[in-house]
Amino acid sequence: MNERSPRLLPAALSDYAPWPEVRPHTGRELARLLALLEGGGFRGGGVALGHGRDAASRDAAAAFAHAWQGSGGWLAEVVDWPEDAASWLRQARRLTRAEPDAWVVAAGSAGWAQMSRRLRHSTDWDPRRTFGFASAGDSRLATAAGPGVLDGMRGATADGRVWVIRRGWLVESDDE
User: pTM above the 0.70 mark?
Assistant: First the structure.
């Protein structure tokens, strides 16, 4: 693990601006996210839930937590983070400490780009076991986060389609 901060400088993040505001999640998005987790073999398992501090991310996280626990799953940890921080190391360690089966993310792309870099460079986090709401699936995300940081991460679009990051590209499809 690397203790040096992998934080992107504001100028680097602005290369991809303007970042969209986080939008409220949809029922189709939540249903697809749950289906992705089930299809990945994580049904009933422990999930670490991470989210931004904006209202839409908090609401999406709460809706996921309710649905996940209602389906027999459990939350290994719930961690929030700001869009801008000195390093995100404390939040990254909390998100990975419980060694969950999978991670779920409800956050804006700019904040998630920063947090994912910290996770990848400083913990044993695995993007292939990470699932995100539509707000975390911006096409600029993989480039901003850096090579290999998010490869394998999947998520749901607002209309219930699937997005996946492969070799630095965010690809959408009707199924996984």
Answer: yes
